[in-house]
Amino acid sequence: MPVDYDTAVTDFEWDIPEDYTLPSVIEGHAEAFGDRVAVTFLDDEGTRAERTYADIHGDMNRFANALEELGVGEGDRVMHLLPRHPDVFAVQLGALKRGALVVPCSAMLKPKDLSFRANDCEATTVVAHESLVDMVEPIVDETPIETLICLDGSPEGWHSFDDLIDGEGTEHDGPDVGAQDPMSINYTSGTTGQPKPVLHRHRWMRAFELVNAPYWWGVTAEGTDAPGVDDDPDLDEELLWATTGTGWAKWFWSPVGVGITTGARQLLYEGDFEADEFLSVMEEEGVTRLCAVPTQYRMFTQTDLSQYDLELTEALSAGEPLNREPIEAIQDAYGITPRDGYGQTETVCLVSNYPGIDVKEGSMGKPTPGLGTTIIDTTEEEEVEPGEIGEIAVPVGNPGTFDSYYEKPDLDEKTFSGEYYRTGDLAREDEDGYFFFEGRADDIILSAGYRIGPFEVEDALVSHEAVAEAAAVGSPHEERGDVVKAYIVLADGHEGSEELTDELQNYMKEETAPYKYPRRIEYVEELPKTSSGKTRRIELREREKEKFGE
Fold first, then answer.
1. pTM of the full predicted structure?
2. Which single residue of 28, 138, 263, 470 could bond 461 by disulfide (Cβ 3.0 to 4.6 Å)?
3. What are residue 339's DSSP bridge partners?
4. CA separation for the pair 321, 325 (Å, rounded)
């Protein structure tokens, strides 16, 4: 489904009905194609389950009825701690039907992280899977949590989700909620400090339906006009798979914001990542559109892709920029080019390699229609010239972005006082309008007067056969201010040595501008990551300050 980009940008309109909510979307789907399978669920123990749109609609309303009986109502905060599960949509949508705000939490968090979130947003209800109950119980007495609901179990003191939805009624008369009403509090991943509570309204899902779906995934909801798109795929013949977990904004970006809003069929797989297993699942289930993270694509390319006869027509990547090696490997194996998409917990997809674009290696793509995404000076609100590094920014008030942090007026004032919402991410634009990611604003390396983005260094390093992962940070230096320091996780079969360090440094001088090569290299077993899998360069910078001073 190639996109006419110029037409899409010129003719795009924000069509967001006042009464738009996710529950109302499900009601429409259940009426129009209730027998369509919405979710095919698999796990690594062989469990298989399906839910149609009619199933989700009925369970949504039954759960909303149960929440009403439990005293959960409009404006209440409902945390959830769930694996990928066939009933996760019913849980989320039932809470939204009550007018409550869902607060997603990842199973990778620790009890102290859950306690911070519960106290910060004053959550009174938690829905957790039976396997994750032990993470919640230690924090109940130190938080506002009063109501405990368990999926796939009924521990003492907990209500059973299965029992709550075990009824005949399939309707719920909830509060009058619309597009401008609060929907979710999604906490940022905390790469540079405490996670921030991003408040989104129901309109956020409509923004995904209008932007992420057609201009990144290449699918369009029935009855939705997408300027620049002439040939919509048949949703009955597509199977979408986003490998994200339920606790992240990416869950709303794709499984909810694209899969559910458009009425597509999608796959959920619950199991630890293993490249051959994931490829086998794709082959057996007939996945046509995949969205995975760069690390997963890198691991795919470590196996023999020729073993798998996939039906993939689109491959998407998100989370961090995708390096050239996996892009080329997927191209060679399946004749499709993985397409990056960029955005944040606070936004929809701001920049993407849209369907039909000529993908440039290392590029995030071009600004998606309707957002006005640009690159501005890091200190002034002036757009930078092509080739200059600046901060990715979006005009304040755009429907594709959030409009507040939950009950954080001081943070709101700081964030929205100017003309632009500053993402904190750095990029440069080439002469053709393509954006290239350069790292977080805090990650930029200043060395002997040069501004060096860490990603270009890391991208070149991982193209060497000895390097599995890399992180580049500034390391204090008496003469240069900072020098580039590379932390490297080696690929299997390679060992760190002075000889390898010399080889990598010489290699980098050929692959990048000579001033960008890492003058310091350290080999490590793993890189520090946030619970969402993003590299915590701030931690690495702190290590360098301890070693070499400010």
1. 0.83
2. 470
3. 316
4. 12
